[in-house]
Amino acid sequence: MPDTRFKPLPWTRLKRGVPCYLPRRAATSTPVDAHSPALRVMTDFQRMTPITIARDASLDDANRIMALCHVHYLLVADEQRQLQGIVTEAGTKGHRPLAVAHTMGVRPSELVVGDVMIKQHDDVEVMHLKDVSLARVGNVVATLKELGTPYCLVVDHDEEDHHILCGIFSLAKIEREMGLAQSAEIAQTFSQVVSSLDH
């Protein structure tokens, strides 16, 4: 029988007095613009595990996780990892939680993620991977503008025709990739991004 055991690789120790630097971010071959493939600005959940939260978690917990992970949204999932919705900073801070608490007749501190999330079947718009694969960044920005949202999920289908969540487009990430300044207002963001596409 052939020997299938793995042999250890050569190893050494870092030398005293010799600096060891953290890597610089590798420069992409070409900058992102409106004509770049859309997949270049999609957060790919096969490469990066999405950050999730339970629907019964507090808004304080959601805000804490978003701050720690430097993200502006969390996916809401159950124990079977089925998507239930998406919760954003806009849903956990400011006017929206106050309005929801008033409607429900509770204090804002009593709200949980499920009270303010964008529910999967009611309000979540998605793009399909087969369409995204052939699209350009400009197509994605136009779609986000049409939907009036800073986020859009991307799905594929498995053999049983279930939806498989495979990524998300975030306007904030598109801004970063295109070298545009971050802005707080969605309308302002759209006008910045769209105007840049015309140049």
From TrEMBL:
Could you tell me which Gene3D superfamilies the record lists for this protein?
CBS-domain
The leader peptide range reads none
Tell me where in this chain the CBS domain is found. Answer: 49-89
What the entry lists under SUPFAM superfamilies is as follows: CBS-domain pair (SSF54631)
Top-level lineage group: Bacteria
One Pfam family of this protein, by short name?
Answer: CBS
Return the protein name.
CBS domain protein
What is the organism field in this record?
A: Candidatus Accumulibacter phosphatis
